[in-house]
From TrEMBL:
Domain called HTH gntR-type: residue spans: 8-76
Superkingdom field: Bacteria
Protein name, as recorded: UTRA domain-containing protein
Pfam family, one: UTRA
Xref: InterPro entries: Bact_HTH_transcr_reg, Chorismate_lyase_/UTRA_dom_sf, Tscrpt_reg_HTH_GntR, UTRA, WH-like_DNA-bd_sf, WH_DNA-bd_sf
Record keywords: DNA-binding, Transcription, Transcription regulation
Keyword DNA-binding: yes
Species: Antarcticimicrobium sediminis
CDD domains per record: WHTH_GntR (cd07377)
Transcription regulation keyword on record: yes
Length: 252
């Protein structure tokens, strides 16, 4: 007697079909899939089974699921070697997209303890006059990177007079302020609250966090936190073996 295909069989079959459509570019980058309930009806499975398929595709990086917006085929990712200090506008434009910066807030004040923890500041004290700012980098009007930054006004006094609504902070610093040392700390985080809302991601979505500190002599210049949606960024590194071809040659 033939065995009836169970939910796992349906799950595997649909998963493979969706993967293949994405790989073959039948569903190209940015393509919006039908609603979960509509897909379940089309494929004759329960909504739970279809949710399992879409969740696995998101975990594998084939799609991104956005709260209120739907499910989309993942777009091309920006890549960075571990890890230069790049101009984010260049990263966006390298993807063939239009870059835009939006400043949320910029104040000269003492950072709060929570802000220092967020920025990865390990050794206060912090000067009384620090520019604390936040904003969003967009690619084709989609959130690309959420930035939080503190700039040491004692070291960069010209920053007082900069309109960071029109000047992108990181780019301005690269052009205006030399630095001798930079440190990056990189990890995966799950977003919630205002960060999830600003990035237009569901609560708990995976993101890549880069904490960056630049130093001039013995003074810090800036602390920055760059938060990328996980589906929009990946790190690459290239290494060369120290073994020479001669050392690999067979011995006579």
């Amino acid at each position: 007697m033939a065995r009836t295909a169970g939910p796992e069989t349906h799950h595997t079959r649909i998963l493979e079909e969706f993967r293949q459509k994405i790989v073959d570019r039948i569903w190209g980058p940015g393509f919006q899939l039908d609603k979960e309930t509509d897909l379940a009806t089309q494929y004759g499975v329960s909504r739970m089974t279809m949710n399992k398929v879409l969740t696995q595709l998101a975990q594998e990086g084939f799609v991104v699921r956005r709260k209120r917006s739907g499910t989309f085929v993942s777009k091309a990712r920006t890549q960075a070697a571990v890890m230069p200090i790049n101009n984010l506008a260049d990263e966006v434009e390298a993807l063939g997209k239009t870059y835009r910066w939006q400043l949320f807030a910029a104040e000269i004040r003492v950072p709060q303890a929570a802000e220092l923890r967020l920025l990865g500041v390990e050794s206060p004290p912090i000067p009384d006059e620090v520019i604390v700012l936040g904003g969003m980098h967009y690619a084709d009007d989609e959130p690309f990177c959420l930035e939080t930054r503190a700039i040491n006004v004692d070291v960069v006094p010209n920053a007082r007079d900069v309109d960071f609504a029109t000047q992108v902070p990181g780019h301005w610093l690269l052009q205006s302020m030399p630095w001798s040392t930079a440190r990056n700390a990189i990890r995966a985080v799950n977003v919630a609250g205002s960060e999830a809302r600003n990035l237009d991601l569901p609560v708990g979505a995976a993101c890549l966090e880069i904490l960056r500190k630049t130093v001039m002599g013995s003074d810090w210049v800036t602390y920055a936190r760059l938060l990328y949606p996980g589906e929009a960024f990946q790190l690459t590194a290239e290494f060369k073996t120290k073994v020479t071809p001669k050392a690999l040659a067979p011995q006579s």
